[in-house]
Amino acid sequence: MHKGQQTKTAIVDAALGLATQIGLEGLSIGALAEVMQMSKSGVFAHFGSREELQISVIREYHQRFEAEVFEPAMRSPRGLPRLQALFANWMQRTSAEIDSGCLYISGAAEFDDRPGPVRDALASSVKTWLSAVHRAVVKAKEEQHLSADTDASQMSFEIHGLILALHYEARFLKTAKSLHRATHGFEQILLRYGAKP
């Protein structure tokens, strides 16, 4: 990478760290310049606006999410093993984020009623991921690992709901055994949809 690109990458990395602590809305050129020990104009030159900085952070978060959750799961056999790997990786990622926070979840709370490019970038990333979960459910059904009458959209919705509940219970309420309950909940969903071991 050229020096300019290396600097921008370092800025985005620092911005992502800040955003997981103070939220996307709290992210500012000034705060980032202080963390990076750069001038505000130096940081601004790499993005042109606070909005573009926020979008760059969302893209970086999405790339890391895919690398940790989606890509390893694709090495599992198609069908139920891949769906189980997706959930296991997602749980692992969520567990690691209990202290720092999930940008998808916190970002949704910040931008759910605020139309614009930042909300669009965030929603697009979440939809991309949820589409991958839905495809994994469909493939598990096609492989006859789930019952023939499985509603893939409903099952995907329920799996997503588990992760949201886990994040809320573990991070906000500090509920004991929330990770265990989420794992148990996933097993129950699989049983309800006729999963074959």
Mean pLDDT: 92
SSE ordering = HHHHHHHHH
Distance between the termini: 47 Å
CATH superfamily placement of the domain at 58-192: Tetracycline Repressor, domain 2
CATH topology description of the domain at 58-192: Tetracycline Repressor, domain 2
CATH top level assignment of the domain at 58-192: Mainly Alpha
Number of strands: 0
H/I helix tally: 9
The Rg value, from CA coordinates, equals: 19 Å
Please describe the biggest sheet, giving its number of strands, its sense, and whether it closes into a barrel: none
Can you give the helix content as a percent range?
over 70%
**Global outline:** elongated
CATH architectural designation of the domain at 58-192:
Orthogonal Bundle
**Strand residue content:** under 5%
Protein architecture, described:
This protein is an all-alpha fold and about 200 residues long. Helices cover about 75% and strands about 0% of the residues. The protein has a domain at about 60-190: Tetracycline Repressor, domain 2 (Orthogonal Bundle), CATH 1.10.357.10. The protein has nine helices and no strands.
Summarize the structure.
29% of the residues are buried. This protein has 9 helices and no strands.
List the helices and strands and how they pair.
Layout: H1 3-22, H2 29-36, H3 40-47, H4 50-73, H5 80-96, H6 103-111, H7 117-142, H8 152-172, H9 178-192
